[in-house]
Design goal:
The chain folds into 2 domains: 70 residues, Orthogonal Bundle (Helix Hairpins); 80 residues, Transcription elongation factor, GreA/GreB, C-terminal domain (Chitinase A, domain 3). Helices cover 38% and strands 25% of the residues. By secondary structure, the chain is of the alpha/beta class. Helix 1 packs antiparallel against helix 2.
């Protein structure tokens, strides 16, 4: 059975675009390999080794992306009933109970999480404690700065 990769529609599109960009770099890498070959002895040719490694890494990354795309589980929360429960794809506003700081995150797939500070991976420890909670519920997370308690303020399916 294949592993499933939950992601939003935007995350799926982002991976499609990354795959295209990576595939577009292959011809220039092949050209670098050909130019490096012309410099002679391949056993001591750093340019050749670097270009071959770049090609391998690019092809590996394309393969990883294609695997995730083939096994994507696209979740669109806009089609779900508004229960105000924290789930994958929901946008949550939490309050740090110690500082009253409000933070808003959209819970997304692991590949999407790094695309902006407002997006957080469903695999993040904070999210694991928040999943299934409703506005008014609190949860506690151990962070690098110690134990922090947060309150779910708002849950949106946007």
């Amino acid at each position: 059975m294949n592993e499933k990769f939950p992601m939003t529609k935007e995350g799926y599109q982002m991976l499609l675009e990354q795959r295209i960009e990576l595939k577009d770099t292959i011809p220039s890498i092949i050209k670098e390999i050909q130019v490096a070959r012309e410099h002679g002895d391949l056993s001591e040719n750093a340019e050749y080794k670097y270009a071959r490694e770049a090609k391998r890494n690019t092809e590996r990354k394309i393969g990883e992306i294609e695997y995730k795309l083939q096994n994507a589980e696209i979740i669109d929360v806009t089609e779900m009933m508004e229960d105000e429960i924290v789930i994958f794809g929901s946008t949550i506003t939490i309050i740090d109970t110690e500082t009253d700081e409000r933070i808003t995150y959209k819970i997304v797939g692991e590949d999407e999480a790094g695309s902006s500070p407002e997006k957080i991976s469903y695999l993040a420890p904070m999210v694991k404690f928040a999943i299934g909670k409703e506005p008014g519920d609190e949860f506690t997370v151990k962070t690098a700065k110690g134990v922090k308690t947060f309150e779910i303020d708002e849950v949106k399916y946007i």
